[in-house]
Fold:
Amino acid sequence: MIEQPEPLHDVLARRDSIVAGLRRLLPESGVIAEPLRLKPYETDGLSAYRQTPMAVVLPETTEQVAAIMAFCSSEGVRVVPRGAGTSLSGGALPMEDAVVVGLMRMNRILDIDYADRCAVVQAGVTNIGITQAVSARQFFYAPDPSSQLACMIGGNVNMNSGGAHCLRYGVTANNLLGLKIVTVDGQIVDIGGAHLDAAGLDWLGLLTGSEGQLAIVTEVTVRILRSPEGARAMLAAFKSNEIAGACVDSIISSGIIPVALEFMDRPAIHACEAFAHAGYPLDAEAMLIIEVEGSVAEQDDLLGRISAICARHDPISLKVAESAEQSAAIWKGRKGAFGAVGRISPDYLCMDGTIPTSQLPAVLRRIGEMSASYGLQVANIFHAGDGNLHPLIMFDANDPSSFHKAEAFGADILKLCVEVGGCLTGEHGVGVEKRDLMGVQFTEIELDQQRRLKSAFDPGWLLNANKVFPLTAALRAA
Amino acid sequence: MQTNFTADQLRDPDTASSNQILRTCVHCGFCTATCPTFLLLGDELDSPRGRIYLIKDMLESGRDATEEVVRHVDRCLSCLSCMTTCPSGVNYMHLVDHARTHIEATYVRPWHDRALRRVLATVLPRPGLMRMALLAARLARPFAGLLPRGPLVFKRLHAMLRMTPANLPANAAVAPQVFRPIGPRRGRVALLAGCAQQVLDPAINDATIRLLTRMGIEVVVAKGAGCCGALAHHMGKHDPAMDAARANIAAWSGELDGEGLDAIIVNASGCGTTVKDYGFMFRAERGVWPKQAARIAELALDISEYLLRIGYAASRPAADLTVAYHSACSLQHGQKITEAPKTLLRQAGFKIVEPAEAHICCGSAGTYNILQPDIADQLRARKLGNLAATGADLIAAGNIGCMTQLAGEALPIVHTVELLDWMAGGPAPKKLKMPALAAD
Ligand SMILES: Cc1cc2nc3c(=O)[nH]c(=O)nc-3n(C[C@H](O)[C@H](O)[C@H](O)COP(=O)(O)OP(=O)(O)OC[C@H]3O[C@@H](n4cnc5c(N)ncnc54)[C@H](O)[C@@H]3O)c2cc1C
Ligand code: SF4
Ligand code: SF4
Structure:
């Protein structure tokens, strides 16, 4: 189990009065403090790490969030923000002495402005909820994490989440215009707005990807885009991971940027096919999903050029989707991929390193070798176009030694990513999972600068103190 | 997901099955997004993932069920939307069934809750009692306004009274018998004549029998078959559910081994989900039961599946009506039947439209609209709004529960099979109240 900061004992001792104070701020169903009902909040998408919090609160308005924050900071109580709890790096893992602030009741779309192409939504609106709200007018919100059905925009902002189509449209940071935040002491602040590039420091850039370390996000203004004229996906099947990796590099270095370029290896193909029935090539060792957009003529042209590149890599098969339903099934499989791996293994750790695409073949070979030496299977599913790897290490959580091996294997993969010129996290964030590996990427001086930045927003280190930065002596002793 | 059961606990077949289910869940949270109660209540505890976690904790600890867990499990509609969404294939249905049985065995509900559940479990599966109860309720309806609104007990009474149809159809329960096909016999099926549906809306069985016999199918309503057991099953009442199921299995096995059956036809999809699960329900029973039950479950088909298989054709000119197809949860999530009813309705000449949020439950969910009136009302209003927005002339659905829940508003609602029968030569459904169209 991951090391947590030492709980603040005076806070634990005042538990009852703190809970009573929270109850004064919210309606009855908005405060959860009974041990049995706290249990389901002890973890997120990384269920290997668990800790029940002291209480959970479910505010419905920015003002309630502000009241909660003012109360918690005056009482010296730690806070863990939570969206949908789909983080794969343990971003929403509670602490024993913390209040979890769950934003899922703040799920309203506040304003849609088609002329200025933006939408204002509360932090608990799901990623896909934004697209659904504007799709009737042929608009969409571009970043599409595979978890888009469930994950919430506040979580996306804090993790700077990416997705398959970010190759073309950029990640969350490239699609944000403004935020409403509540600071640790309960002030409500507006940042940015309906237009790009507000005056002054780039606060928006600073807050995006800040993993709940700096403030609580309650509203988000996102850019919405016109839906493309059309899109088509194709499947390319190959004889080995390395060949598929080399093909990715050829496509990218040819200068063609498909809207999405996704990689799956054999175990992933089989698990996803069982879920989505998308006609994935079951005879392949590796497969690429490649999607292009535009008019039919543009699509044909791009698919033709991409097929020609694939053909140079000895493919087993190349198949272009023939209907919108087929494309949808192809994406259903890809987006359900991590969950689908649950069909072949009870547990997995999902890694999230980034590497230069030229290193793909070599890194995939090394991962294969490590898998053999650790004796743990790996399924590779990832955003190949931007070199964002997601090796899923399969293990059995009911067997502690298997979990420890998986953790060590994961750390080796991430170190390998840094070694070949990449970095620790592509899009899932540092959370608790990669917290203790931050030293591999950053020097102590760099880490201290980042800690100072956090202190400027959160002097008492009340927000998400168990994440992102290796624990300092002060947090250990509390 | 990690689980924590002792070897001793795992010797119990129900626990072993639940352990397997829990281990399949990877805690990804996808299912939360399509859960009606999570959408309304915004609390992990009222989401599938939260319930799975509560149930896991309850079963692992071996504790008796407590109010905290019961509250959230009771709010589950058993709509199984979570199973459609889950990429990992988690069988939430069997897990929540196990939890409900555990709750029924170890938790003492407040007296009024217990009493109501006993009444529902006794009355609904018995057409005779149900009819009497509805007659009594009709007498009570004018006095509904006198009941206080606040406490749950009264809200539930209001909900029950609202469900009673303004005009109770004449007693038209189908007696056990064989309906001969018109023309040469192409097949032979048993029809689950059902319980509550027969009382609330006998026109559904009539249309089914007319349509099938006209298509050359012999229809048997087997002696001894009755309620499928779902009503008791969903309330965690294991023994009555098994007794009801056993009676059906025995009755249909008799027909199967006698003159033979091509299928067992279910026209209330809530029941269909349960009949198709008989194999699992009887897996640990003694003697011939597991095998018999599995055989019956295999034969069970929704009426729409069967009609598509034998080839439906309309004989009347199209009626130029736009039908909003309401996909009952038990059809789309429980049995994964999504296209068959729409295909058939199109073959019958109707224009089909679908409401937004088609995957979200209407709040009927068996006895849910009586037991959880607040949530059920919100879901009903949401569904009716989405249906009205389609601009359709009428609604078609394949489940009596949904039909009762959504009845009484601007749009008439009929069973899919009534429309199919009409267009193949049967009478126009009375519920349409369209004199010009109803004329034969
Ligand atoms: C199956 C699966 C597939 C995934 N695929 C992708 C993918 O393709 N791309 C990708 O980028 N990610 C992916 N993820 C990871 C995850 O979905 C994202 O990190 C997502 O943005 C988390 O959103 P959430 O609402 O669940 O937030 P949580 O998990 O609840 O929280 C995430 C972090 O943000 C903080 N936080 C949440 N809301 C707020 C707020 N309003 N204010 C301040 N801090 C807040 C939390 O404290 C935590 O540190 C996947 C996860 C799963 C389970
Ligand atoms: S979608 Fe399936 S695997 Fe994911 S949390 Fe829900 S039940 Fe578990
Ligand atoms: S069955 Fe329906 S109500 Fe129950 S947890 Fe699943 S989605 Fe939610």
Summary: The first strand of chain B starts at residue 177 and ends at 179. Residues 191 and 265 of chain B are 5 Å apart (CA to CA).
